[in-house]
Amino acid sequence: MPNMQEMLNLLMGLPALLLALTFHELGHGLASYLLGDPTAKNQGRLTLDPIAHIDPIGFFALLFFKFGWAKPVPIDPRYYKNRKLGIALTSIAGPMSNFILAVITGLIFRFAYNAQIEFFFSNDIMFNFMSSLLIYNISLGLFNLIPIPPLDGSKILASMLPDKLEYKFYQYERYSMVILVLFMYLGVFRTIFSPIVNGAINLFISNIIF
Fold this sequence. Notes:
With 210 residues, this protein is an all-alpha fold. It is built from twelve helices and no strands. It is globular.
């Protein structure tokens, strides 16, 4: 569990976390809508209201473990002309939304650095928000590409499988949530995935910001 200083940083970064989650789920919903599925729109999920997208367990996990998820946007693949392609595109749209937002954040950092905008770096609230926005978007995007249900990577993988294997793959989805939470509690993702995320963040900073 985080100490007091870490808790303060978490609270200061909370708006950034909510923004990252919102853009992630909005990306799913918009992609599905553009593919002809009105389900997300009809259920009020094409919105920038973060409350509509929060999954309590996933939010808690992302807040404290830096790995988590939002409430899945409802989709109906029957509307897609190509079911598997539609599922794949809709699934990857969430992480891509996070990566796009991370790039935009990085470009703002780069502009502020090149223009020597001192306020941007000296104001703790501003700097913490932008730094958190960068970290959360990269973390959320990469984590959701892991092919374990209910993460987006699992749906991308399933869409590439033959129909019989796809059906069997989804049969075990109900058990995967327990495994996912257990891995987080035991620190498996922190041990294995944190170095990947940290490496991606450092690579991103060195190539986009400075």
